[in-house]
Write a structure and sequence with these properties.
The protein has 84 residues and is α+β, with helices and mostly antiparallel strands. It has helices at 9-17, 20-31, 78-81; strands at 4-7, 42-43, 50-54, 57-64, 69-77. The chain has one domain (4-79): YaeB-like fold (2-Layer Sandwich), CATH 3.30.2310. The chain has 3 helices and 5 strands, in the order E-H-H-E-E-E-E-H. A 5-stranded mixed sheet has the order 1-5-4-3-2. Strand 4 (57-64) and strand 5 (69-77) form a beta hairpin. The longest helix is centred in the N-terminal third of the chain and has 12 residues, at 20-31.
Length: 84
């Protein structure tokens, strides 16, 4: 079961702002989820979204199991990613 990964406009902008090294690490980790994402993710409390931890960064994701989609909503430092 392969999942397709999609990036929101906000996530794309946040990734472009990052230096090359963390950006590569984050993308590598995100694309490693294509096989089976759920064991690597943690559910956000009080939300339908999931989070992925990548060193000092966090990615907020929406996983649509029935359509085999992973939507990357936000990617940023832990201190900023959960701000709305």
């Amino acid at each position: 079961m392969i999942y397709n990964i999609f990036f929101s406009t906000k996530a794309k902008k946040q990734l472009k702002k990052l230096d090359e090294t963390p950006r590569k690490e984050i993308l590598k980790k995100l694309y490693s989820l294509k096989g089976n994402p759920l064991p690597h993710l943690k559910k956000l409390k009080g939300s339908k979204f999931w989070r992925l931890r990548i060193e000092d960064y966090r990615a907020v994701l929406d996983v649509i199991i029935t359509e085999r989609k992973i939507l990357v909503l936000r990617v940023d430092k832990r201190s900023r990613v959960y701000d709305r």
